[in-house]
Amino acid sequence: MLAQANHGDLHPVSMSEGNPATAEFSKDNPFPARVVENRLLNRAGSAKETRHFVVDLGESGLVYKAGDSLGVYASNRSSEVDEIIALLGATGDELVTPLRAPAPLPLREALSTGLDLDGPTKKMVEITASKVADPAQKAQLEALLAPEAKEQLEEFLYNRSFVDFLAEYPTAKFTPQELAGMMRRLMPRLYSIASSPRLHPNQIHLTIAVVRYHTNGRDRVGVCSSFLSDRVETGQTPVPVFVSHSHFGPPEDPSVDCIMVGPGTGIAPFRAFVQDRVALGATGRNWVFFGDQKKASDYLYEEEWTDYLAKGQVHRLDLAWSRDQAAKVYVQDRMRENAAELWAWLEKGAHFYVCGDAKRMAKDVDAALHEIIATHGGMDAEAAAAYVKQLKKDKRYQRDVY
Ligand SMILES: Cc1cc2nc3c(=O)[nH]c(=O)nc-3n(C[C@H](O)[C@H](O)[C@H](O)COP(=O)(O)OP(=O)(O)OC[C@H]3O[C@@H](n4cnc5c(N)ncnc54)[C@H](O)[C@@H]3O)c2cc1C
Ligand SMILES: NC(=O)c1ccc[n+]([C@@H]2O[C@H](COP(=O)([O-])OP(=O)(O)OC[C@H]3O[C@@H](n4cnc5c(N)ncnc54)[C@H](OP(=O)(O)O)[C@@H]3O)[C@@H](O)[C@H]2O)c1
Fold first, then answer.
1. What is the pLDDT of residues 2-38, one digit of tens each?
2. CA of 374 to the centre of ligand 1 (A)
3. Which of 50, 189, 212 gets mutated to test ligand 1 (max ligand atoms within 8 A of its CB)?
4. Which of 132, 213, 326, 400 could form a disulfide with 172 if both were Cys (CB 3.0 to 4.6 A apart)?
């Protein structure tokens, strides 16, 4: 059995190779996998950075099914960890006890793998205001804490991570323990698996949008997407992973039709579904709705989709390029254009799946689905809502949104 995390509840990553053949890998005991492929999916001229990763499951014994997700434990950028240690005037060897950690651990280790360096809350502003020696800065922070400054406080926090506080308010003189006590535990990130075990029993494929942005004078990165993209050396760096099993998945009955709506990285599980159904020889039809910014640069897995279509393994492929013309075109517009047929598929028992952005896309697709059912089923809004409710109850309407 592999050793468990040596520091209680923080990053549960032992990295011990142990005896993988008999180990049971899980969220608490992740498998140190290797990434064997890291490839940019967008073409020249794209505004996006979406990457295809292949994770080798080696001798882990890990099993997965189409619809599951992979959990990944990332490490923070060493440049940011070094900067925080320098701004604290520390060496990195100081022992700190983060919130809910049962035992102390060295500051550098806590900042590298245990703690989220992003996401300061109002409490960080309050404590900085109480500690800062510069009267103008104290007044500025106190003004942000006033009840009427809620929006300004939100914006102030949105644009800052912990390192900004240390750099901007040096007279607050945080100790390593004070800082570590304000940070949340670094959580693993989940990624929808983009491959089927019927085709790739020993690999897991992922489709990941790398998060990069600039705020408050600094270039920032998403912890896990940049870890996989920039800091993991192909074939070398151990990447702690676990399989998160899900109820989301293709129909058990291979004769059932599938409608899959997955713009952007939302396409990931549907690549897995189609691989799975083709490998199984499923007789049910596959209808894929995909969209992204520009056809020339953002058509993820274009060759695979055109090949499936040519072979009759994907029966319908409707594409929505939001930035190829003046007015935005989204997947739900393509659904509306094909409403009668979509309704006919549903009435024949098709399952309806959505994956991708939860904040806007999934809500708008849900609204379009209600509208299509009402119009083509001749129902009022209430009856259409009841129809959708029944779809969900029958597990024919499933979502994997984030
Ligand atoms: C079930 C599930 C499946 C998922 N599947 C996939 C998938 O297949 N592919 C995929 O790419 N992702 C997927 N995700 C999302 C993924 O888990 C991560 O949330 C994503 O990769 C970002 O993680 P990160 O660590 O790189 O970024 P983080 O370090 O978590 O940073 C992201 C945060 O940065 C901040 N931020 C981002 N842009 C800006 C900006 N412009 N200005 C200010 N702040 C900003 C926001 O606060 C945002 O929440 C999935 C999520 C779930 C729950
Ligand atoms: N914070 C946010 O508001 C937000 C929104 C979307 C995605 N994200 C995150 O950004 C990362 C990358 O996302 P991604 O590559 O998967 O793709 P994405 O940014 O979600 O975009 C994929 C496609 O969906 C379109 N889209 C935007 N709004 C939509 C809506 N309301 N309905 C339908 N389609 C819509 C986009 O168009 P346009 O971009 O041209 O409008 C684009 O063509 C993910 O981690 C995702 O969670 C964040």
1. 333 333 345 554 444 444 444 589 999 999 999 999 9
2. 34
3. 189
4. 132
Rounded-to-integer distance, Cα 270 and Cα 16, Å: 34
If asked whether residues 379 and 324 sit together in one domain, one would say yes
Instruction: Judge whether 249 lies within some domain.
Output: no
Task: Please choose, from the candidates 390, 53, 366, the residue with its C-alpha nearest in 3D space to the C-alpha of residue 206.
Answer: 53
User: Could you tell me the CATH number of the domain that includes residue 343?
Assistant: 3.40.50.80
Handedness of CA 155, 158, 159, 164 (dihedral sign): positive
The structure's pTM equals 0.94
Same domain, 322 and 206: no
Same domain? 264 vs 394:
yes
Domain-located, residue 342: yes
Give 361 Cα–ligand 2 centroid separation in angstroms.
Answer: 7
Element (H, E) at 182: helix 176-182
**Residues whose beta carbon lies within 6 Å of some atom of ligand 1:** 69, 118, 158, 189-192, 207-209, 211, 213, 215, 222-225, 265, 268, 400, 402
Question: In this structure, is residue 138 part of a structural domain?
Answer: yes
Structural domain harbouring 217: 31-74+188-244
Are 113 and 165 in the same domain? yes
Give nearest CA residue, ligand 1 atom 24: 222
Dihedral through CA 114, CA 118, CA 122, CA 123, nearest 10? 30
List the residue whose alpha carbon is closest to atom 53 of ligand 1. 402
